[in-house]
From TrEMBL:
A Pfam family matched in the record: rva_4
Start and end residues of each Integrase core domain: 117-293
Protein name in the entry: Integrase core domain-containing protein
Superkingdom of this protein's organism: Eukaryota
Length: 383
C-alpha cells in the first residue's frame, strides 16, 4: 500500500483522491487518519501550520456551488475561519481568483450572475454527437461525454455515423459497461440518433424520477451541445488535425479523388490507427486533471475520478438501472461495427495484394500512407 500512496501522492492526487482510487481500483479501504499517518511515515508533506491548500480549495469550491459565488473574498475568509480552516485572507483571495476569475470580475463590476450549465453528478446528462471532419476521407467519428465529469464514455471511428443502428450499438455497449443508463441524454435532431432516443425512452419509461420517460431524452442544435462541442475542439487539437493534414497532403498530391474506391482504401489503411489514437486521447483526457471552473458549472479534478467517485466533488451518481431482458430486446435493433474496416471486396483485394507483394501491416500513419498509395496505384493499373 505504501508504494501506491507514494505513487498517487507524487502525481498530484490529494488525500480524498488517494482514498477514492485506493478503494475503487485496489479494494484498499483506509481512513483519512491512517492515510495521513502513512504519509508522515513516508515523509510526504503538503502543509505545516497552515491548513492544506487542498482543503482551502475544496472549501471555496463548495461555496462557489452555492451562494458563495455571490460573495467576496472577505466574506469567504470569515466563513473559512468559522469552518475551522487556518488560512490567510490573501490565500483565500488567490484561490478565489484562480477558481472563479469571471465571478471576481462580475463582483467588481457589481453585475448580476447569469444562469449557468449545471448538473448534479455523473450520469445526470450525457452529450452525444457525430464528428465529420474526417468524413470526406471515409472515416466517421461518433462520441459521447458525461456532462458533469467530462468523462469520455465512447469515441468510435467507423465507416459511417449515419446508420442509427450502428449509433445505437455504441449506446447499448456503453450502458452495459457502466451498469445503467443516464438520467438524460442529449443529441441533435439527426436521423442517426432516432434509435438511441427510442431505446433511452424505452429503458426509462417505468422509472419514477422527475426526468423519467419522455423527459429522459433532449434534442437540441449540435452547436449548442456544450460539453461535446468543447470536447471536439480538444480532440481536433490533440489528434484530428494531424489526420486532416495527412489526408489533405495525399489529396493535394493527386492520390485521393473522393470516390468510393479511395474512401475504402483509406478505411483499409487508416481506420484502425485512427481508432487506436482516439482510444489513447480519450484515456489521457479521462485521467488528466481539470482545473475547476465553478463559474461554468465545472468541478475540478480528473474525469475518471469525478465519474467513478463523485463524492470527492460533492456530486451524486444519477445512473439509472435497467432490466437486462429489455436491453436484450434493444440489441436486436443494433448493428455493431463490422470486423472488416472497409468494403469486403476492397478488403479481400487489398489483403491479397499485400500478401503477393510482401507489404507489411502499417504500424504508424506514415507507413499507412505509403501502403495506401501502393495499393491505389496497383489497383488502378489493373482496372
Amino acid at each position: 500500500m505504501e508504494e501506491l500512496i507514494k505513487c498517487y501522492f507524487e502525481i498530484g492526487f490529494n488525500n480524498k483522491e488517494i482514498l477514492a482510487v485506493l478503494a475503487q481500483n485496489h479494494n484498499i479501504v483506509v481512513s483519512i487518519r491512517t492515510l495521513k499517518r502513512r504519509c508522515r511515515e513516508l515523509g510526504l508533506f503538503r502543509r505545516r501550520n497552515q491548513s492544506d491548500i487542498d482543503d482551502v480549495i475544496a472549501f471555496v469550491q463548495e461555496e462557489l456551488r452555492g451562494n458563495g459565488q455571490m460573495q467576496g473574498c472577505r466574506w469567504l475568509h470569515l466563513r473559512a475561519l468559522q469552518r475551522g480552516l487556518v488560512a490567510s485572507q490573501s490565500t483565500v483571495r488567490l484561490v478565489l481568483k484562480a477558481l472563479d476569475p469571471h465571478g471576481v470580475q462580475i463582483r467588481r463590476a457589481r453585475r448580476l450572475r447569469r444562469r449557468q450549465y449545471t448538473t448534479r453528478g455523473p450520469n445526470a446528462l450525457w452529450h452525444m454527437d457525430s464528428y465529420d471532419k474526417l468524413k470526406p476521407f471515409g472515416i466517421c467519428i461518433n462520441g459521447c461525454i458525461d456532462g458533469y465529469s467530462r468523462y469520455v464514455l465512447w469515441m468510435e471511428a467507423y465507416t459511417t455515423n449515419n446508420d442509427p443502428k450502428v449509433i445505437a450499438s455504441y449506446y447499448i455497449q456503453c450502458i452495459e459497461r457502466v451498469g445503467g443508463c443516464p438520467e438524460r441524454l442529449r443529441a441533435d435532431r439527426g436521423t442517426e440518433n432516432g434509435h438511441v432516443e427510442g431505446m433511452q425512452l424505452f429503458l426509462r419509461r417505468e422509472h419514477n424520477d422527475a426526468f423519467a420517460g419522455d423527459k429522459s431524452f433532449l434534442y437540441g442544435r449540435s452547436t449548442a451541445n456544450q460539453r461535446i462541442e468543447s470536447w471536439w475542439g480538444i480532440l481536433r487539437k490533440q489528434s484530428v488535425q494531424f489526420w486532416i493534414n495527412l489526408f489533405k497532403s495525399l489529396q493535394d498530391a493527386g492520390h485521393f479523388s473522393g470516390d468510393s474506391l479511395d474512401k475504402s482504401l483509406m478505411q483499409f489503411c487508416f481506420l484502425e490507427l485512427v481508432q487506436k489514437e482516439l482510444d489513447e486521447v480519450a484515456q489521457t483526457w479521462n485521467t488528466h486533471k481539470i482545473r475547476p471552473a465553478p463559474s461554468r458549472g465545472e468541478p475540478g479534478g480528473r474525469p475518471v475520478l469525478l465519474y467513478t467517485a463523485p463524492q470527492i466533488s460533492g456530486g451524486e451518481d444519477r445512473l439509472k438501472l435497467f432490466k437486462h431482458d429489455e436491453v436484450d430486446l434493444c440489441k436486436e435493433e443494433c448493428t455493431p461495427k463490422g470486423q472488416l474496416p472497409c468494403d469486403e471486396t476492397v478488403y479481400d483485394l487489398s489483403t491479397l495484394l499485400m500478401q503477393e507483394s510482401g507489404w507489411n501491416t502499417p504500424k504508424d500513419a506514415f507507413e499507412a500512407a505509403e501502403l495506401y498509395t501502393l495499393l491505389r496505384e496497383e489497383i488502378q493499373n489493373n482496372l
